[in-house]
Amino acid sequence: MLIKSVELYKTVFKPGDYPEPKEREIAFVGRSNVGKSTLLNAIFRRGLAHTSSTPGKTRSVNFYLINSKHFFVDLPGYGYAKASHQEIKRWQALITDYFKSRPNLNLIALLLDSRHNLQKKDLEMLQWIQYYSIPFVAVLTKTDKLSGNQLSKMLNSFRKELETWGSPLIVPVSAKTRKGISELINILFGK
Ligand code: GDP
């Protein structure tokens, strides 16, 4: 699958304010700082997604139109330590509303830092994904920070941890070296 064109189609701040569905819709979620914006930019091959130097600020749902017919949806990162109670509530309302409202949501890419095991917030996200019965793949980010040995250890460990969550496909990537990026794109498009 070749990504020929990408445009930021709509930025949504309020539940319900979504665009009409397109062909395929794939949503990206993960803890704040997991490398989501950097990964999206690596997929797009341009700096469209804003990297979160101020993580708490990215509270919108961004719809990117791919090849004029699919949506990649960038959901706000979770688990930002300094987020206020009110911000967290708003975030939860937006995400759960989005999950509920998009029957054509084909796939979630759940981003996990390849260096760390599942965190409490990731487990909460997994519970939501399961509750809304949305298919997902686990994308392990920043794999360039691990040696080959360390990565295979982490892969085993993620595989075990994710067994209780339906043993999703696990895709290791590095936005920095681009390792795994084209494989990931093919997986997202079911190729
Ligand atoms: P977000 O909050 O999930 O959008 O995370 P960002 O994309 O802003 O990335 C957080 C930090 O991780 C930044 O300092 C990035 O440069 C760094 N980062 C992201 N992806 C990679 C990667 O593949 N390799 C390395 N080494 N660093 C990365």
Automatic annotation (TrEMBL):
UniProt superkingdom: Bacteria
NCBIfam families, per the entry: GTPase_YsxC, small_GTP
UniProt record similarity statement: Belongs to the TRAFAC class TrmE-Era-EngA-EngB-Septin-like GTPase superfamily. EngB GTPase family.
Role summary: Necessary for normal cell division and for the maintenance of normal septation.
Keywords from the UniProt entry: Cell cycle, Cell division, GTP-binding, Magnesium, Metal-binding, Nucleotide-binding, Septation
Protein name (Swiss-Prot/TrEMBL): Probable GTP-binding protein EngB
Residue span(s) of domain EngB-type G: 22-191
A GO biological process held by the record: division septum assembly
Signal peptide: none
Pfam families noted in UniProt: MMR_HSR1 (PF01926)
GO cellular component terms listed in the entry, alphabetical order: cytosol
Cofactor (UniProt): Mg(2+)
Keyword Kinase: no
InterPro entries: G_ENGB_dom, GTP-bd, GTP-bd_ribosome_bio_YsxC, P-loop_NTPase, Small_GTP-bd
GO molecular function terms attached to this record: GTP binding; metal ion binding
Organism field: Kosmotoga arenicorallina S304
